[in-house]
Write a structure and sequence with these properties.
Four copies of one chain form a homotetramer. Chain A is α+β, with helices and mostly antiparallel strands. Helix content of chain A is 21%, strand content 35%. Chain A contains five helices and 16 strands. Chain A has helices spanning 25-35, 76-90, 166-180, 248-262, 287-290, and strands spanning 2-3, 7-21, 48-55, 66-73, 98-101, 109-111, 123-127, 130-137, 140-144, 147-163, 186-188, 199-201, 212-214, 237-245, 268-272, 283-286. In chain A, strands 1, 2, 3, 4, 5, 6, 7, 8, 9, 10, 11, 14, 15 and 16 form a 14-stranded mixed sheet that branches. A two-stranded antiparallel sheet of chain A has the order 12-13. In chain A, a hairpin with a 2-residue loop joins strand 8 (130-137) and strand 9 (140-144). In chain A, 63% of the residues are buried. Chains in contact: A-B, A-C, A-D, B-C, B-D, C-D. Chains C and D meet through helix 1, helix 2, strand 8, strand 9 and helix 3 of C and helix 1, helix 2, strand 8, strand 9 and helix 3 of D.
Chain lengths: 291, 291, 291, 291
């Protein structure tokens, strides 16, 4: 097992954290999943979003089971818009849910005026010491805060997992993603937390209309066909984890845990990371320093 | 148990059906879930989308486990755009996936040029008798067709489930949604398949800026506060299933199965449906005729 | 990919099929899982048992979602005892469940007198044309038939999946097991459907007290240490699927589907099967004939 | 919501705690589920067993994801036997698993000689500072400790959840069970953690052959038919949680968390507990003191 002597390059993002609760864990998960769907990469989606951690009954503002989710965008206005749309379309509509601000200590808050949906029938309530709105709906009442903290976080923390074949690399990526599932403040926005198709900026051949295209240097099937392949001999598949987080520490903790977990799987040969000479962003996470 | 003598009013939508396969059921599900996320209602989302049915290994074009999903929009151009974005961002990026046209008999097909991502390294392959592209990616190759059938389907088929309290109505909605999970050609786009917060068009109080607001006539907590409540006495909660499908028959089959399943749950008191005097659309599904 | 020119050797077992329904799919699954737990091999467990197929709402005697399960033993008396214990301890006790005979056409039926639990408060009811008992319990009433068909089925159908490393072989076994999940009449009794530790009868070294021990001929880590290893070069792991079924046809269908599914996974090198020169039993399933 | 002024009566049991790890969370869960199956009540099963808590990658002896499980019996010899059988039949046989002693500080340990399965091919290894055996198997090697701590714990901690109908009571029981899932040292041995059919010792009508029968005093459908019903008016269903734990504190923590979680569900009317005048055992958990 080799840990490549390189670093992950990352960039600043605006992040809000929403606590979604529901009558049962299952309903909280369904709402959190819908609200963080179609949100893999800011290149093609309106936001990057993922499920942060599970909060058992008793560890949420209303005592019910829940999940915290992170929603990340590159512009602050976009974040406000995405909070309204994703909470309004995907959580307010889901059975038995409530939403709370998951970054109570953030000095800046975004107003997210959901109570207008109540059409004047809504009323204010306290949940513990939180000021919330209760909006009458068909299923009962939807309880929500209307201000959500926003912080400048980190997007694009990453590791590459290289395995001798597809299933070794993929299972390692899976268990690495499982590690991050219990680390607060860090999320994986891609399906199951894993990126199968890393991209480079622009395109060699279709430059006129493609903003991004396959990163041929990391494609095992092209190892002997491209001059600058970064796929070592004996590697059959590469999977990437891309991590967004509330701060540098969350990314570091997630990367460390993910690498250690990935290394428990037989057939994993090398861990590396992606960087772009500073063009992507100011953050650098050196693999050798993190471990 | 009362079946209300009324009908569900529905409207035409453009529908494509995408078959998503992967190495295992779990990975196919994760990709299908991400690709159909943030897609509850065309009011606030770019599309309505949901998982159609599970296809076991051996029942897909490449013999691997998969799911069919439906993506629905009100305009055809928007459907093409959503196919590109949702497949490109959420399925191409997911581990071990492939995508195939799930409406092979539709006379009209939308071109979805995913192979450009391959930046010239892609090549054509046959999967059975289907012409596909193989795009080199980090995890191996992404195999996909590039034309997806489109049909004029039906959006907004619906039933209302009224229960003596929240958990009776919700569990009935859950089992009704489970029934539809195995009916080919019909999907539920809301979280877990269930709508908790039905809306009316516009707003009484915030008309200047709200396109939709809570449907107070169906809110149990407002039963004694609004003049025209449609919530019968003794009803504690109302949940709605909204069904999109490839044709009228799929909607009918889904509504019939859903109503029968809902009626197995103790505490369910009435099944009804939503209609809007023909303003919403031309389709009418009479509950008493369907059963 | 090589399909070994060999056969799986299997033996007769007594089989009953129980349909477990519940209010929701989740509760049916939990009951079915508990009832088929601790039932991997007749060598160390009182029965071999597994979940057969999912039955959606509308496809069961009471219209609710359910699962059929198979319970298999080598003696008929033991089967009756196991039916009483597993239904009584694991399904009767589970929320909202009911149980029905899943082999209605079997000429022979085992009496399973569960109604005595009702202590005289029980009463007879009809579910469709089935004669059942309704037993008052804390959660409501437990509905059950009291006669369960028994047939002479087949135990020990099997395939060996050999992969270049652990994750390739395991993922292939997983997807093969997923194939069998939708084949009616065949079950996998081991955890997740997969056997990691195949055994031989008796023991070389600890013969005095061990009835079975590791099958060193199939252990990749012993390939160079035992004279008669059956592990080909380049194989890093071997997983076995052991299939019990209601008849020869169910075993054949399951083996065929499983082999085809396993072969879709990159890194799988060979499919073989286990046989013991006729000492284990009279059934032979030739791999080359089955496919 | 009423908390009944009563207590849960519980009894001593012998308890071992086994840590089951695997390559992924899913495989650890499958093995843990099989190993704790058919183990609801010592009345009809050889042990009471359940899943304790999830241990993410990095929080287990070998760094892989895992679950701790508790196995409980009334006699110590039976516990040793059950450890051998349940680990040997359900975990050793499961893909990629390992097992470790989860009660390292218990002064007494039970010898569980699993290495004989290796038939002389096994060898000793260290996992951190734990002395383990590595047993060659088809899937690779099975790693296990051979001594498991045993403590005198508590069996039969319980609460009754009474709801205005079945789904309210059941959902409350579900969320209470979810609370206990994250409390270390306490398990629920029944399916999904919930008991639907509480029993009394012996039988009125079938006393000759029934050791236990339905507890008619808690059956809502018999409320007007038995003289001593303990079901208050307006209660449609009663579900029980039965908790086994490593010590008194684990039971108390679990009961407290479960009651609070249950009370978040609309339609729950009363929490009570079961006791038998000291005939069952020496432990008493007063609901009013615990909260």
């Amino acid at each position: 097992m080799k840990i490549d002597d390189t670093y992950a390059e990352a960039f600043p993002v605006f992040v809000s954290r929403v606590i979604v609760t529901a009558a049962t864990r299952n309903w909280a998960l369904k709402a959190a999943t819908e609200a963080t769907g179609f949100a893999t990469s800011c290149i093609g989606c309106a936001a990057e979003a993922g499920i942060d951690i599970y909060l058992p009954p008793g560890e949420t503002p209303d005592g019910r089971p829940g999940y915290s989710i992170l929603i990340c965008t590159q512009k602050k206005d976009k974040l406000k818009e995405q909070l309204i749309e994703r909470i309004g379309e995907c959580i307010l509509t889901a059975p038995t849910t409530a939403t709370f601000n998951g970054l109570t200590e953030a000095p800046e808050k975004l107003p997210v005026k959901l109570h207008f949906f109540g059409d004047g029938f809504e009323h204010q309530v306290k949940v513990g010491d939180r000021s919330c709105w209760a909006i009458p709906i068909m299923g009962g009442e939807f309880i929500t805060e209307e201000e959500f903290g926003v912080v400048k976080g980190v997007g694009g923390g990453n590791i590459f997992i290289m395995g001798e074949n597809q299933m070794a690399a993929l299972t390692a990526a899976e268990v690495a993603a499982e590690r991050i599932e219990t680390i607060s403040g860090a999320v994986l926005s891609f399906p199951g937390g894993i990126v199968s198709s890393g991209s480079k900026v622009g395109s060699r051949k279709y430059a006129k209309f493609m903003k991004a295209s396959t990163n041929e240097a990391y494609c095992p099937s092209l190892r002997d066909k491209v001059p600058d392949s970064k796929v070592p001999p004996g590697i059959g598949a590469v999977y990437e984890l891309i991590i967004d987080g509330v701060d540098v520490k969350a990314i570091e903790t997630a990367m460390r845990g993910a690498i250690r977990a990935a290394c428990t799987i037989p057939g994993v040969k090398m861990i590396s990371a992606g960087n772009y000479g500073g063009k992507l962003g100011p953050y650098q996470f050196k693999l050798h320093s993190i471990l």
